Amino acid sequence: MTKVVLIEDDADTAQDICAELRDSGYIVDWAADGLSGLERARAADADVLVIDRMLPGMDGLAVIDTLRREKVRTPVLVLSALGAVNDRVKGLRAGGDDYLTKPFAVLELVARIEALLRRPADTAAKTMRVGPLEIDLIERTANRAGREIELLPREYKLLEYMMRHSEQLLTRAMLFEEVWKYKFVPDSNLVDVHMGRLRRKVDGAGEAPMISNIRGEGFVLRAPD
């Protein structure tokens, strides 16, 4: 059975999450502070970690950063009342794989966990795959179901970042920060131009689309149904 370690200091929130996860067939191990949560995460051999950002004893991002430094690659869903773009970026940079802003529906949390479990395993591998799409992290090449995709360097960086965060909504601000390394959002259609070229290369004629433009919000890459 799939095991989740939940690190959440609010008892009511934790009880709601635990109840829904157990009803969905998960094993849940709950810790109420950062230090004990870090020890649970180290020892529990979990499939997914759900970590609140603001915890007593040790901040949630410090917990995640410590685990990543120790080469723990377990997927992490960050929970936080802080929903600004900069806060989400900090959560992802610390080593989080997804970021869910409070308040949230517990059913959405379960869906996010399911999405994390569908993602590629250890990103230290030579290749990464999402559905029929595969990239070679060493050769920096890409193919879809064997069809070679010729990418410019920036397009490859953009695709790799999207594959590392498949199923997640990526805003233009996040892409500027992570792919272009801008500390601000320029008044530019740069992301849209590159994304348009990338979509035409990834989603060929007659192929189910994998890159979606969520109007006014950002972009999502997901495996076709």
List the helices and strands and how they pair.
Blueprint: E1 3-7, H1 11-23, E2 27-31, H2 34-43, E3 48-52, H3 60-69, E4 76-80, H4 85-93, E5 98-101, H5 106-118, E6 127-130, E7 133-136, E8 141-144, E9 147-149, H6 153-164, H7 172-180, H8 190-202, E10 211-214, E11 218-221
Parallel strand pairs: 1-2, 1-3, 3-4, 4-5
Antiparallel strand pairs: 6-7, 7-8, 8-9, 10-11
What is the approximate shape?
globular
**Strand order of the biggest β-sheet:** 2-1-3-4-5
Could you tell me the radius of gyration in angstroms? 18 Å
Tally of alpha and pi helices: 8
Explained architecture:
With 225 residues, this protein is α/β, with parallel strands linked by helices. It is built from 8 helices and 11 strands. The protein has helices spanning 11-23, 34-43, 60-69, 85-93, 106-118, 153-164, 172-180, 190-202, and strands spanning 3-7, 27-31, 48-52, 76-80, 98-101, 127-130, 133-136, 141-144, 147-149, 211-214, 218-221. A 5-stranded parallel beta sheet has the order 2-1-3-4-5, with helices on both faces. The protein has a 4-stranded antiparallel beta sheet with strand order 6-7-8-9, with helices on one face. Helix 2 (34-43) packs parallel to helix 3, helix 4 (85-93) crosses helix 7 and helix 6 packs across helix 7. The radius of gyration is 18 Å and the shape is globular. The relative contact order is 0.10.
